[in-house]
């Protein structure tokens, strides 16, 4: 995926945590794991036919980077987990993927 101009990293907000929480279940199913800790730490976003979020999420001592698509309001679709990267560390930068 090409990102164009690189989005700026920001600290996660309550809105970003809510978006991450909406895709926690699909991620649990794909990884066949439970996540007792699932805290959004930081994110980048990009407007492309809606908004794409790249969110770093802390899961205990490990991190995962998730890509989430929030469609345009007129499409009336739920947010969707479009990709993710596991085994990330605290210092791994969130990037477009």
From TrEMBL:
Its main location: cytoplasm. It comes from Bos indicus. The lineage of its organism: Eukaryota, Metazoa, Chordata, Craniata, Vertebrata. Signal peptide: none annotated. SMART domains: CY (SM00043). It holds the Pfam family Cystatin. It is found in: Cytoplasm. One of its GO terms (cellular component) is cytosol. The gene is LOC109562575. This is Cystatin-B-like. Belongs to the cystatin family.
